[in-house]
Each structure stands twice: as structure tokens, then as C-alpha cells.
Amino acid sequence: MDWMWITLGVVLTIAGIAGCILPFIPGPPLSYSALLVLLIVDEQTFTSRFLIVWLLVTTVVTILDYYVPVWGTKKFGGSRKGVWGATIGLVAGIFFFPPFGMIAGPFLGAFLGELIEGKDTQAALRSGFGSFIGFVAGTVMKLTVSVIMAFYFFRAVI
Predict the structure, then answer these.
(1) Do 98 and 44 contact (CB within 8 A), yes or no?
(2) Which 3 state secondary structure label does DSSP give 32?
(3) For residues 76 and 126, is the Cβ–Cβ distance under 8 A?
(4) Given CB 3.0 to 4.6 Å as the disulfide criterion, which of 5, 46, 96, 130 pairs with 50?
(5) Cis peptide before 106 (omega within 30 of 0)
(6) Residue 98 CA from chain centroid, whole number
(7) Is the distance from CB of 45 to CB of 38 less than 8 angstroms?
(8) pLDDT, tens digit, 9 for 90 and up, residues 42-53
(9) Considering the entire predicted model, what is its pTM?
């Protein structure tokens, strides 16, 4: 019976890491769920303090993941249309041009949004670059957290 729970935990861990790259899968929450699954196998696997800290980290990273690309776009001079363009570009890129669309989509969306706003090409490129930087920063942040939780998961299993 324990092997079933451990297998589920492995699947959640892998899905969590994949979810850091695929925006429609909640990466860190799945990785955290894998840690919780180990509690079914052995209640002494992790301390309550450990689980609370990682719950907070998971929550903060998940919230920041939605904010960082918007922040990047705004930090590099983007307008509301640039932010909306980056968001629409991300969604369109995922469905129409995976996996490269996830990177190019927000950039192109922010760029086009700024052009629609009436900004010149230079300002639109700067906004698109900010969106790209925000996307990469969010992905790295999620991936780091999920890989660390994967380390703790596999260390507890082995």
C-alpha cells in the first residue's frame, strides 16, 4: 500500500516540476502535495514547522508568479495594454506554438499591446523585454522551489 502513495508522490513531484514550465499546471502546489502524500506513509516524515514553512513559500511563489510578469512589463515602461497583451500572448503561445510560444507569446503580446497603445517601436520593444524578463524570473522562482521540494521528497523516500 505504501508504494501506491509513494508512486502518487513521485507523479505529483514530476508534475510539479513540469508545472513550473507549463503555465496551466500549478507547479509548486503539486510539489507541496507530494510532501503531504508522504505523511500518509509516515506521519513523522516532516515536522509541522517544515510543512508550514513550505506551505507559506508555496503560497507566496504562486501569488508572485502572477505578479512578476506584470511587474516586469510595468518596470520597463509598459502600459495596461502591454500587460494585457503579454497575458494574451502567453495563453496564445501555449496553445498555438508550444513550447516556444510560452516565451515568445508574452514578448510579442506586450509589444503589440504597446503599439496599439500608440507607443513607438523602441518603447514597445522595451515593454516586451520586461514581460519576457518577468516570465523568466517567475519560471526560475517556481522551478527553484519545486526542485527543492523534490529534493526533500526523494530524500525522505530514500
Answers:
(1) no
(2) helix
(3) yes
(4) 46
(5) no
(6) 16
(7) yes
(8) 888 899 999 999
(9) 0.81
Q: What are 20-41's pLDDT values in tens digits?
A: 887 678 999 999 999 999 998 8
Domain count, the chain: 1
Report residue 93 as a C-alpha cell: 503561445
- The C-alpha cell at 60 is 507566496
Calculate the CA 141 to chain-centre distance. 7
Q: What percent of the chain has pLDDT over 90?
A: 42
The type of residue at 61 is V
Nearest residue to 16 (alpha-carbon basis) of 33, 2, 3: 33
Residue type, 28: P
Domain of residue 42, residue span: 2-157
Q: Which three cell numbers stand for residue 146?
A: 519545486
